[in-house]
Design brief:
The protein has a domain at 41-107. The radius of gyration is 18 Å and the shape is elongated. Helices cover 61% and strands 0% of the residues. By secondary structure, it is mainly alpha-helical. It has three helices and no strands.
């Protein structure tokens, strides 16, 4: 099953410097590479790790309520667990790609 990043990264401001937003509209000069004053890459990464942790916590409580028999909507619990699983897979793939890119930089000769 392919991973849909829109499920894992909700509310992310997709400003990418001078390239523009994901919908094709250009960014203004004040937004720049930091994405409309979001605090830069470190803050963005911290926010997304927090969102990943929240989705894992939500999935844990949903699966616990499903196991207890107290879940009001079993479908929502299953969706929460699957969303958390896909989010974790996406985070792991991004981490792997980041490590590979860093290793490639270290192998580069100047």
């Amino acid at each position: 099953m392919p991973i849909d990043p829109s499920m894992a990264i909700k509310g992310l401001d997709w400003n990418v410097g001078s390239v523009g937003k994901l919908d094709g509209t250009p960014t203004t000069g004040t937004e720049g590479a930091q994405g409309a004053g979001s605090g830069g890459f470190g803050q963005l990464l911290s926010n997304q790790i927090g969102a990943l942790e929240k989705s894992q916590t939500d999935a844990s409580s949903a699966s616990r309520s499903l196991a207890d028999g107290t879940a009001t909507d079993p479908t929502a619990a299953i969706v929460a667990v699957e969303r958390a699983q896909l989010s974790m897979q996406l985070a792991a793939q991004l981490r792997t790609k980041g490590v590979e890119a860093l290793q490639e930089l270290f192998r580069t000769q100047v």
